[in-house]
Amino acid sequence: MNRRYEVHLRQVGRWWNVDIPELDLYSQGRTLGEAEARARDLIAEALQVSADDIPVDLVVPEAAGPLQLVRQARAELMTAIAAEQQALAEAVHVLVTQLGLSQRDASRMLGIPQEHVSQLVSGQL
User: Fold this and answer.
1) CA–CA distances in Å: residue 29 to residues 22, 34, 94, 106
2) What is the pLDDT of residues 4-40, one digit of tens each?
3) Are 100 and 82 in contact (CB under 8 A)?
4) What InterPro entries is this protein classified in (predicted)?
5) Within the chain, what is the greatest distance between any pair of CA atoms?
6) Rounded distance, CA 17 to CA 26, Å?
7) What's the rounded Cα separation, in Å, for the pair 27 and 9?
8) How far is residue 103's CA from residue 101's CA, in Å, rounded to a whole number?
């Protein structure tokens, strides 16, 4: 199932209230994990599918700002990791192929394991 369901959560005392507005379903759980499981179960029951097949997006309105910052930082991190991998591949190509350095020396210069250099040389990464 590709359809994702938004589950609104609000902590009230020691309980989490669960609201699935799209399906007009409500429940609660003692823990966040229990609340999420209860939401999946309710959606699965309403749609007559397995709860394991229900992707949900948990929304806690009071935490929306900080969580958005985390998502943004993670996206930026993934972009930076991809850029680093590209730069490493290019540097390994120059150091080993064009300048004739050994993989051990390239590894030392780049601060990465020799196995990583070997994988970049062979095109495995």
Assistant:
1) 19, 5, 57, 54
2) 999 999 999 999 999 999 999 999 999 999 999 999 9
3) no
4) Lambda_DNA-bd_dom_sf (IPR010982), TTHA1013/TTHA0281-like (IPR035069)
5) 66
6) 8
7) 10
8) 6
